[in-house]
Amino acid sequence: MKNLLLLAAFLITPLAHAGGGVEVPQEKWSFQGLQGKWDKDEIYRGYTVATQVCLACHSFKYINHRSLMRVGFTEAEVQTLAKALNMDINAKLISALDEASAKETYGKIPPDLSMMNKARAGGADYSHAVLVGYSEDPELIKHYLPEGVPQGAHFNKYFPGHAIAMPNPLSGPDMVTYHDGTSATVDQMSRDVSTFMQWTAEPERFERQHLGVYVLIYLFIFTILAFLTKRAIWKDIKKH
Amino acid sequence: MGHHHKAVEQDIRNTYRWFDDRLPLLSFLKEHLADYQAPRNLNYMWNFGSLAGIALILQILTGLFLAMHYKPDVNMAYDSVQHIMRNVEWGWLIRNLHMVGASFFFIVVYIHIGRGLYYGSYKSPREVLWGLGLVIFLLMMATAFMGYVLPWGQMSYWGATVITNLLSVIPFFGPDIVVWLWGGYSVGDPTLTRFYAIHFVLPFVIVGVVILHVWALHLHGSNNPKGIDLTKQSDYIPFHPYYTTKDVFGLGVYLIPFTFMVFFLPEYLGHPDNYIPANPLVTPAHIVPEWYFLPFYAILRAIPIKELGVLAMFGSILIMFVLPWLDRSKVRSARFRPIYKQMFWLFVANFFVLGWCGAMPAEGIYVTISQVATTFYFAFFALLPLIAKYEKPHPIPATI
Ligand code: HEM
Question: Which ipTM score applies to this complex?
C-alpha cells in the first residue's frame, strides 16, 4: 500500500499547461525563495513604469494608492504619488482609455493587469518575456509567421500565435525616470513592472509565507509529540 | 478540600445520568467514538476514514466563512473572490484552505477507496457500507464541480458549459433538462446562483450520509488487513485511546503537506485560466477540469460517440456499486489473492494513466491511449468473476 502513496505523490506533479507559444525563459526574481519580501524600491520602480506607460491602456483595478502602504510606503508618500496623477489615494488605478475606443484603435480591449501574473502559465517570466519579445528582425518574423504579420498586429516571439494587438510598450530606454537613479533600460523597466504585477496579483505572498514557516514548525513538533503519545499508548499491544 | 472535590465530581456524574436518562446522546457518542471495538491489527491505511471526516469538517468551516463574503452574481463573483483575497481579514488563508482542502479531500478519499479495494472491505457483510461510500463520493464530485464554478473564471464557465451539456444526450428530454438546469439558454447568472445554493447545502447532505456510513461500519465492525472475521475478544481494542492517538498522529502527518501547499504553493493544483474572468465569447484553448476529475474526463473523451462516452463515464463509477457481486471470491484481503493483487496494482496504474490522458488534448495518440486504458478499466471488473473462479488463494490464517 506504500506504492499507493508514492503514486499519489506522482499525480500531483505539474500537469503541462502547454500553450501555443514558445517556451518562456525562466528568470530570477527577488520575490522567489521562501523568505523574500517585497522590495520597496523595486515596487516603486515598477509602479513608475506601470503608471507612466501601461496605465495609458491597461487598468489595475484591484489596486489603489493606499495598497502601496502594504509594502512600506508612508501615507504622505502615497498622497504625493496620487496627487501627481490627479487621483484620490482610495481610487482604483483605472486607465483613461475606455473600452470602446480601445477596441476601435487596437481591435482588442487591453486586459486588466492586476491579476495578469496569475492568469498566465509562467507568471512574471511570461510577462517579462512578452514585454521584451518584440522584434523587427525580418528573418525571425518570417520564421514564426511565414504568412507575415496580420494587419494591425505586432510580432511578438512569446505571445501565443506571435501576433499581438499591443504595440511594443517599452520600445526604447529612458521612457521613465526612476526615483533612485537606476538606469531605465528596456530590460530593467520590463523586470520592474513584472515584479510590480507579481505584487498586484498576490500582495499577501510574504504574509502567507512567513506565517507558513511558523505553522510548519508547530506542526512538526505537534506530529512528533503525537507520535510519541501513540507509541506510548500502544506499547503493550501486539499487532500480529 | 478533597472531600469537596469528590462532591463536585458526584454532582457532575448525577447530572450526566439525569441528562442521559432523558436523551442518551452523550452515551451514544461514547459508545461510537470511544468504546467502539476495533481490530488491533489495523494499519495506517485505516487512518483515511477519519481523515476524510476531518477534511469534510474543514471544508464546511472554511466554506461558511467564504460564504459570508462571496457574491453569487456574474457581475460580482470574480471581484468578490479578489475582495476576499485582498481585503477580508485572513481571507487569503480561508480561501487557500478551502481550495487546497478540496484537492486533499479527494486525495484522502481516493486512498480510502483504494484501501477498500485492496483489502476487500466491500464484501459481505459490508456491501451497504461500500455503497454509501460511493454515494458520498458522487456527492463530493457534484459539490466540487459546482464549487469550481463559483469564482467565475474562464475554466469555471467553460467547465460548467461542457459538463452540463453532457446531459443533453439523455434521450428525448435531454435538451430541455439542460435548459432547466441552466435557468436559461446558456450557463449564466441563474446557473451561478443555483450552483451556489446547491454547493452550500450538499456538504450537509454528505454529513448525513457519513453518519449512515459509520452506522453501517459499526454494525459489523471494521475489516482488517488480513480480511478475516475476528472471533476472540482479545483481537479487539477500544477505539479510545488506541485509534484516537493513532488518528491524531495521522492527522499531523497529513497536515504537514497540506499546510505546505496552503502557504507556499496554493495555486499549484489550479489552472491559470481560471484567473481570467469568465468570457462567453472566448473559448480557452484546452478546457480541463480539476485534476481529481481527469480519469473520468479521459473515459468520457475516449469514446467518439458522445452518448456512449457519457454512459461510460457515469458507468465507470456506477459499476463500483455492483463490485461486491462481481467479485465472488470468499477471500477478502489481496494479501492472500495473488492474481487479484496484481490486477489491483494494474488498475491503480491504469487510473493514473487515465488521469494523465485527461490532462492532454483529445487528439492523436492520447485518444488511443485513453481507449486502451478505458477498456482495461472495465475489463478489470469484467474479469473479477473469472479471477474468483480460477485463482488459488494463499492459505488464510485463522486469527490475527
Ligand atoms: C466524505 C467522505 C468519507 C468519509 C468522511 C468516510 C468516513 C469513514 C470512516 C470514519 C470510516 C472508518 C475508518 C476507516 O475504516 O478508515 C470509513 C470506513 C469505510 N469507508 Fe468511508 N468515508 C468516506 C468516503 C468513502 C468512500 C467514497 C468509500 C468507497 C466507495 C468508502 C468506503 C468505506 C469502507 C468500505 C469502509 C470500511 C473499511 C473497513 O473497515 O475496512 N468511504 N469511512
Answer: 0.92
